[in-house]
Write a structure and sequence with these properties.
The protein is α+β, with helices and mostly antiparallel strands and 347 residues long. The chain is 38% helix and 15% strand. The strands form three sheets. Strands 6-5-4-7-8 form a five-stranded mixed sheet, sandwiched between helices. Strand 9 and strand 10 form a beta hairpin. The longest helix has 20 residues. It is elongated. The structure holds zinc ion.
Length: 347
Amino acid sequence: MKHLIPYLQDDQKAADYLRQVRWPDGVTCPRCGSDAVESRERCDNGLQRFSCVPCAGRLGQQFAMFTDWTSSIFEESKLRPLDWLLVMGLWQLKLNATDIAAAADIQERTAQRCINLLDGGIYETYHLDPTRQLEHQVEADECYQSAGSKGLPREVERREREPRQRGLQLRGRATAELGRPPLLGLVQRRDKTDQDAPAAQVYLEVLENVRTATIKPIITAKVKGGAQFFTDEYNIYHFTEADYDHRTVNHGAGEYARRDPDGTCVHCNTMEGLWSGLRNFLDHFRGISQRFLHLRVARYEFLHNHGHLHWRQVCEAALRCIFSTTGDYWRRMAHQHRRMPLTLCYR
Ligand SMILES: [Zn+2]
């Protein structure tokens, strides 16, 4: 791979490529936003140094330095630009930390930190983006993902006193507290009449439980009013009748798809297909902590929604998201023992 792609040949080219994605219209100062910046000498790892003229004037100094990575998610990383680009490419292939470490020849702990930063950056910017909404024909469904306390020895110990009952049918609906957090999936069907239409757009949210009170604010925020809304007959969705053209299939009676008199196909098969894709993806992580589940789910969501693009376009879209944050979310989350509650995220 290194020899095929010019910007994967050395750190300077990798740094130049990343800079071009971060500042397509020219470098601006991360402190004041001014474009009156002067190039200085490069760092040892190939990153370009700059000095901001207005900032230097304001501070009464000769220079006010920053680099390609100042105030970005990569700022504190010791990994070189070339390694980061390789990790990005492997991240995009939906690999776990062990495989990324082997392929990029870095330590597994480093790879773990890299994927948490990247997934965290995507979660914070792409997943939580309030402007991303679904419309036209939207299917909703829920599924349950086993997720424990991997990586948190004290939590594991606490829970091991009351072992999870594997393989047994739990009475009622599973919850995060019971070790099987529910996921809500919303998917806008792909417009099949338009050849250039993007992939079916999906929104996936890890939940504490599946009560109407939990899912209602999410559906209201994510699905535009007036959309056709397809679900099974599960009663948590009944509230949607007021705002949407809500149609249900009766799975209990063996009905999985039907065509209504107005020609509308009523089913949740798009979402069902997505669940199996997600399960395949999550299986690579061989036991996943509830703490990280939503980050991995966000990566799947992002990669699925960009699935119609060339891999290089996907890489650049991911980088643009990641460069739009300083990585605050991940830094705050690193100190939490559980997933941050959603209320903290939807400010
Ligand atoms: Zn400045």
